Request: fold
Amino acid sequence: MMKTFSPKPEDIKRQWYTVDAEGQILGRLAAVLAHRLRGKHKPEFAPHVDNGDFIVVVNCEKIKVTGNKLLQKKYYRHTGYVGGIKETSLQTVLEKKPAFALMAAVKGMLPRNRLGRAMLKKLKVYAGPSHPHEAQKPTPLSL
Reply:
């Protein structure tokens, strides 16, 4: 009888990858990133262990969306005051904080618990072509 393999923290080997988001579609890129952050591409995947990789995304201000999402997709937040709901369109978000749109998309595809929050910390998103993670020697990831 075979025992079920459960990865231990010392079994986990994390890699660093860079992804160029220029010309990529927002939701499709987010789905691939969430898959990699969870570690589902590895044979030793376990749903209760964070064994995903680190991913550095550059050029996220050049990301694309299909259809009328630039005007129709809304992000909501609440100030805490009565009637204090604020809404922002995707177009405004991409102009002011382009990294937020990708982070929010990936966050929605990760588990809603401590493990999901730990996975999201391994995603580094930058609007321009440069990033401060050269010391980790990230390898380019082709999508």
User: Anything to note?
Assistant: The domain at 14-65+98-140 is CATH 3.90.1180.10 (Ribosomal Protein L13p; Chain: A;). Residues 31 and 79 are 30 Å apart (CA to CA). The chain has five helices and six strands.
